Description:
This is Thiolase domain-containing protein. The chain has a domain at 8-119 and 199-216: Peroxisomal Thiolase, Chain A, domain 1. 32% of the residues lie in helices and 22% in strands. It has 12 helices and 13 strands. The strands form 2 sheets. Strands 1, 2, 3, 4, 7, 8, 9, 10, 11, 12 and 13 form an 11-stranded mixed sheet that branches. The longest helix has 16 residues, at 26-41.
Amino acid sequence: MSTNPRPVAVVATSLTPAYTAFEGPEAALVMTCVNELLESTGLRREELEFTIAGSCDYLGGTPFSFVMNLEGVGAWPPVYESHVEMDGAWALSEAWLRLQCGDVDTALVVGSGRASSGRPREVFALQTDPYTMAPLGADPVSLAGLQARALLDSGKATEADFAAAAARALPATSGVSIEELLKADYWCDPLRAHDVAAPADGAAALILVAGDRARELPGEPVWLTGMDHRIESHHLGLRDLTDSPSARLAAKGAGAHDGPVDIAELMVVHSPEETILRTALGLGGETVINPSGGPLAGNPVMATGLARVVEVVRRIAAGEARRGLAHASSGPCLQQNLVAVLEGEH
């Protein structure tokens, strides 16, 4: 790819609440987001030249369930359409690359999931190695407990660090202190219930527009200046669980350190991950971490990573920050990491 990528901006975002159990179909979540995006931009459906979604058929329990979600997008008139069996953040990556090709100028990106229709701890255990790990039934929470224990044993973090990350996800009016969180019973030792993001139902979506067209639409465009994602071995015994080389490489590839990072939304599904990501991504005290509360405050499975992008875009568009970083992960113990860098108008 060219070292001078085509300018691409996020011109509109939408995010549903994180429902404990959404009563309607997943397509209804998608439709809510799409209708909001079209209304805010004034674009017609036929002007969305490329549509891509991220979701999980395993959670839906039916083959090719993502096809039904197109009912929420509108399948007419026909446009280029794609899907990734991943969080919507990876759908964003494909859309950004597609816009770099130059044959389309607009793209709709959606991430959606109904965690309540399945058992996430069982479903996502299938992401592990199928020969040596999956037969053990090692689920993501149990593996996160192993990662937390490795951090504690290495001296790189304390349980107070975990509680501090969890505290930031609580409403300001909660009045719960770190000391009180540390008194809670263990749920998956050394993790407590507040250290684990509860799976939820929800959707996130945004519209990407390339070039000067982005400035012609209502609102302030937020430019997606860099994106990269990397993967590590799915054999946990071959990795240092207290570090994340893939996140470090993704940040470098996305150009995260080419300027100051005012805010960072990190996909911290288990509180110990914040300690690892802060170090791997090179985030200092000047960067505000997860001003939204992060996934510990709301974890719409398969949209959680894309929601991080939405949260950064909204704060930049509101003038609360000039440059931000959004992070998404997939797989056990931060196996895959994606980093997007976003900037406001100069």
